[in-house]
Amino acid sequence: MLLKLLPEQVSSNWNWIKFALVESTPELTEYGLNVILENLLGGGMQCWWEVSYTTEDIDDFKLHAVVVTTTFYDTFFQMGCLRICNLYGYVDLAPQQWIAGVETLKAYARGLGLHRIEAFTQHKGLFKLVEKLGVNVDYHLTVEV
Fold first, then answer.
1. DSSP character at residue 52
2. Distance (Å, rounded) from C-alpha 92 to C-alpha 31?
3. How far is residue 35's CA from residue 14's CA, in Å, rounded to a whole number?
4. Is residue 138 part of a domain?
5. Residue 54 is part of a domain; what is its CATH number?
6. Contact assessment for residue 73 and residue 112, using Cβ atoms and an 8 Å cutoff
7. Based on the structure, what is the number of domains in the chain?
8. Is 77 a member of any domain?
9. Which residue of 33, 59, 75, 80 pairs with 114 in a disulfide if CB–CB is 3.0 to 4.6 A?
10. Cα 57 from chain centroid (whole Å)
């Protein structure tokens, strides 16, 4: 189950989020992490947790993944987008977890009046999975300057 964290949940669970960010994006600086935290707390970015519950106690859960998103307006295509900025898995996710997570993000984006979800990844397994879901998989080139 993919859940969107509230700012106070981001604050109290920052160590888990920070770990995921550093592990998946090692080039992030301490300053960059602070900017991300500021945006998560201020609403400029969103943090999501993929969790499963072992009991009916909402505090008794297993954390599977951390996702960080942001919204932006694409002036070229004249549409609002939800961008998946970061995705880190603490465990391997089952295909049905991926599908349910994408559906949750699609519903969130639709609710904001956005028209597309974007993500960048080098994970070949993820490419194969989302292609099976009918997702358009284009290649994004990045040139360092």
1. E
2. 30
3. 13
4. no
5. 3.40.630.30
6. no
7. 1
8. yes
9. 80
10. 25
